[in-house]
């Protein structure tokens, strides 16, 4: 496997814009492979220099150097919910086994290279910018609070840093509380919602029950939050287009960035990949994608044409609407599109066809992932899901096993699952933010359920495509699963008609708020949350109206229309069902059995 970048600009004004795009999963595969390859080459050149014929376990060292592959951080593992971030990511030092000639084994203690990346004596790369956003403090009219990220001045990467220009403190206590789900602060996100969102990805129907023309539509929903096949232009959602409400891999990926970053590197696409944890996170994203492709190999971008309502007489075509490095704006996308700037050994670009898991070309990638155990038979490896090729019937069984493996507190056998969809403008606040979904208890307090994260470059970014998206009002969609026990608690807290349906109760009980990565950073809450029993600090915090001119920015207590998320409640079969036989292309689209229960939250303060 060979990955290289040739003739690629390193200036931030020329950016590969791959988020909110149908090639999001595929593009990141060579991105991770490139660094893995570089590390492997470095290790294989260093090890022979460090060992000789007398080195103990010499052959083991040589084999280890040859077989070294990138590790992944499995943030879906239950230990994440118990302990938070593994301490290997934030302890000060690491103990390493070093090659040596005599007993005993030599243990060396080194600075922890997984905690941060230091930019060295050369300083930050050209194009690094400080980011400043200022907000009024509602509890102190003469006080302003600032969201600060000093990327131009910080000498290394940071996670949840304080707003200091030099040597900020990192708040790992709050970071871990967020992962464990024990924090009461905004900008939350926890292991439970992450793993449930992954479980939901395996609810797509049997490919044999979805007409072939809709297979690209399925890939579109899974791959990214833009969901181009369901929209006309940047933000006009089309009624009747096939929807499965299973969520997207990009959505889960975004939530991890939000939880880890705060105002630090991981929460800004321009700077995230400098943090060492970025690649271990993306390696886990790639692992989940690999198992999804194993289960659903039929769902691909294909020729780039997707099914359109009502009869597919005029199929749509995926486009790189905004353009990026090496790809002109408006270029059509298909399985043979170039994954710029990544090239093969012969100088040609890698394509999605080359990297589809299980394809002949992908076998040259030189890595795989361990099997995922069947929770019904955890100690029986023969019942685990491996990435070895299997027949279609077995793949469907594997989808059920994977859903069981990842689900936590979400029944996979109920007749109905309850979901919340959040359509938002990722650029509404000039950077990353989250929309948090909550519910009211019997005492009038609010309890957190889950969130939808916008992982977005700041307005100061030189990304031309981002500016075009911002000007066009591009929207994205996120799907949040309501756990069964949460639905039960909401029903138990309900003080209205005891015979009311879950849909009625949920619609009256659900709340939302918008949070930015700053202390007390709630900038808006849905109107119903601002009753006598709920008035958190910052609930009426001013939201910035975005404009291209910094001098023209103003502070407003009322959101602009483009800043308001559209939040809807849906009821869907927890295991999507389909008719016994595929329908003809002219029939009603399959996979659309979700029920739109209407907007939940329309008014914002």
From TrEMBL:
Classification via InterPro entries: Di-copper_centre_dom_sf, Tyrosinase/Hemocyanin, Tyrosinase_Cu-bd
Principal EC category: oxidoreductase
Reactions performed catalytically: 2 L-dopa + O2 = 2 L-dopaquinone + 2 H2O; L-tyrosine + O2 = L-dopaquinone + H2O
Residues annotated as domain Tyrosinase copper-binding: 19-36, 275-286
Biological process annotations from GO: melanin biosynthetic process
Annotated region (Disordered), positions in chain: 573-592
Biased composition (Low complexity): 573-589
Keyword annotations: Copper, Melanin biosynthesis, Metal-binding
GO molecular function per UniProt: metal ion binding; tyrosinase activity
Documented EC number(s): 1.14.18.1
Highest taxon, organism lineage: Eukaryota
Metal-binding keyword on record: yes
Family: Belongs to the tyrosinase family.
PANTHER family: SHKT DOMAIN-CONTAINING PROTEIN, TYROSINASE FAMILY MEMBER
Protein name (record): tyrosinase
Protein species of origin: Rhizoctonia solani
Upper lineage: Eukaryota, Fungi, Dikarya, Basidiomycota, Agaricomycotina
């Amino acid at each position: 496997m060979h990955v290289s970048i040739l003739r690629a600009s390193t200036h931030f004004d020329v950016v590969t814009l791959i988020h909110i795009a149908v090639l999001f999963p595929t593009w990141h595969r060579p991105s991770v492979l490139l660094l893995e390859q570089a590390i492997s080459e470095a290790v294989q050149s260093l090890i022979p220099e460090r060992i000789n014929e007398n080195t103990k376990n010499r052959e083991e060292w040589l084999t280890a150097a040859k077989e070294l592959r990138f590790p992944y951080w499995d943030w879906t593992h239950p230990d994440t919910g118990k302990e938070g971030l593994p301490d290997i990511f934030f302890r000060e030092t690491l103990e390493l086994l070093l090659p040596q000639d005599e007993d005993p084994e030599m243990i060396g203690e080194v600075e922890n290279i997984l905690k941060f990346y230091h930019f060295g004596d050369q300083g930050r790369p050209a194009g690094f910018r400080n980011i400043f956003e200022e907000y009024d403090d509602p509890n102190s009219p003469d006080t302003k609070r600032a969201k600060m990220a000093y990327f131009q001045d910080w000498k290394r990467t940071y996670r949840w840093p304080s707003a200091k220009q030099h040597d900020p403190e990192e708040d790992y206590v709050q970071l871990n509380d967020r992962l464990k789900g024990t924090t009461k602060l905004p900008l939350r996100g926890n292991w439970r919602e992450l793993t449930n969102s992954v479980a939901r990805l395996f609810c797509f129907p049997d490919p044999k029950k979805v007409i072939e023309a809709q297979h690209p539509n399925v890939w579109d929903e899974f791959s990214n939050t833009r969901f181009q096949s369901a929209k006309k232009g940047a933000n006009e959602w089309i009624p009747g287009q096939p929807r499965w409400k299973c969520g997207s891999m990009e959505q889960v990926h975004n939530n991890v960035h939000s939880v880890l970053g705060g105002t630090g590197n991981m929460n800004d696409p321009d700077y995230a990949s400098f943090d060492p944890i970025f690649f271990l996170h993306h390696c886990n994203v790639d692992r989940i994608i690999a198992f999804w492709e194993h289960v659903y190999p039929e769902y691909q971008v294909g020729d780039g044409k997707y099914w359109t309502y009502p009869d597919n007489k005029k199929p749509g075509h995926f486009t790189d609407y905004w353009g990026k490095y090496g790809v002109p704006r408006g270029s059509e996308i298909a399985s043979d599109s170039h994954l710029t700037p990544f090239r093969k050994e012969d100088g040609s670009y890698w394509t999605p066809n080359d990297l589809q898991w299980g394809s002949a070309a992908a076998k040259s990638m030189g890595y795989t992932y361990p099997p995922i155990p069947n929770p019904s038979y955890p100690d029986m490896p023969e019942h685990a899901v491996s990435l070895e090729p299997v027949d279609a019937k077995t793949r469907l069984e594997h989808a059920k096993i994977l859903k069981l493996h990842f689900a936590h507190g979400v029944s996979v056998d109920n007749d109905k699952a309850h979901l919340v969809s959040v359509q938002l403008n990722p650029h509404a606040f000039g950077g990353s933010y989250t929309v948090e979904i909550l519910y009211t208890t019997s005492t009038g307090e609010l309890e957190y359920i889950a969130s939808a994260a916008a992982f977005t470059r700041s307005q100061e970014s030189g990304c031309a495509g981002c500016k075009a998206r911002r000007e066009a009002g591009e929207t994205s969609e996120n799907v949040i699963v309501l756990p069964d026990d949460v639905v039960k608690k909401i029903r138990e807290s309900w003080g209205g008609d005891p015979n009311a349906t879950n849909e009625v109760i949920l619609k009256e009980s659900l709340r939302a708020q918008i949070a930015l990565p700053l202390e007390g950073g709630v900038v808006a809450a849905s109107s119903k949350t601002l009753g006598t029993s709920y008035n958190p600090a910052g609930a009426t915090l001013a939201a910035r109206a975005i404009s291209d001119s910094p001098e023209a920015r103003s502070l407003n207590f009322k959101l602009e229309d483009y800043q308001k998320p559209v939040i809807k409640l849906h009821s869907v079969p927890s295991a999507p069902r389909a008719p016994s036989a595929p329908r003809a292309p002219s029939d009603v689209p399959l996979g659309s059995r979700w029920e739109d229960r209407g907007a939940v939250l329309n008014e914002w303060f």
